[in-house]
Amino acid sequence: MIKPTVAVFFGSRSTEHDVSIVTAISSVIRPLKLSQKYDVLPVYIAKDGRWYGDPALGDIALYTSGGIDAFLKKQQPLSVLFDHGLKLVKNRGLKRQTISVDVAFPALHGTHGEDGEIMGIFEMAGVAYVGCDVESSAIAMDKVATKQVAQAAGLTVVKDVIFTKSEYAKAQKTLIDKIEKELGYPAFVKPPHLGSSIGVTRVNNRTELQNAIEVALVYDWRVLIEQAVPNLREATLPILGNGDELTPAYLEEPLFDSNEFFDFETKYMGSGKKTGGKKAGGKAGAQGYSRIPADFKKDIYDEAEQTALRAYQAVGCSGIARVDILIDYKKEKVYFNEINPLPGSLYAHNWQRRGISNVELVERLVTLAQQRAADKRQLETAFNTNFLRQF
To answer: pTM for this one?
Structure first.
């Protein structure tokens, strides 16, 4: 029996390049191989944008040892062929190897991947691919657009001020005054198009605000400033599924000091140590310490879960995504925050608590990709007309 070929794409020209490598190898490539159902091809996209395909690229030691650059110097980059699907072509001297991809599994965080760009390539090729489509990925990776869609769906969001780099250059004082008047302190400054909390800063005064805006504008052409939620408890919900057939994991509460926030350092570098979560009885997950399931009152838990599910559907997510929620626990008010269309490490630690192993998780994602591709093939994409005959 011929196994379907699953190509796993990771790395790329992104600030989250290294996080992508860990997600791809630990949470996608390894369990796909363990399933013994697929031929797995690691496709590493280097920081210069070149694509490389080789089984050795699925070994984390190649990256942790610093040997990746020397390895790539001996490799020929892949070329892409659109020929009744997606084919990857690898030249080895006079030999040419063509690999037909049955399912593309993007494990790309941030720009040039998670934002929908690579999904456009998969769509043009007509190949099944895992996760959110072009439109939903692009919306989810734009925090401003996501909030607008959520509001249109009737969800509650945090008050904000939004402006572009050019607007800030023309009216810096006016915008700073507006932020202080409408939002006050503390507030959060965010580059709308980045994930993993990169460039996000909590500010408590005018000087910190100005500095944080300058930092955000290094990463993005637009800035999102949000009012801090008082009495804050955060929650996040990973979700699997297409359309109306959705499976939520457990609502998870990251544990951290209320004066801190869940930044990149906390998520990926400190194992939650600076948050004090371990003392609170939390479990170590992929991104620090958290409580699974969150111990909110039942009505708050249910409202947070429903808010996440409604946001997932409103944005049009499919395959997998993670929805983040903010809660004012004294006023018992639930806010939609944002959507991550590719959760770090697929949030496998949460799914395991739900009884879904890493292997079953990736198998489900491949099946969902194949189902969506089959549904799309039923749609007409061509329309015959007599338009050209008039010329």
So the answer is: 0.89
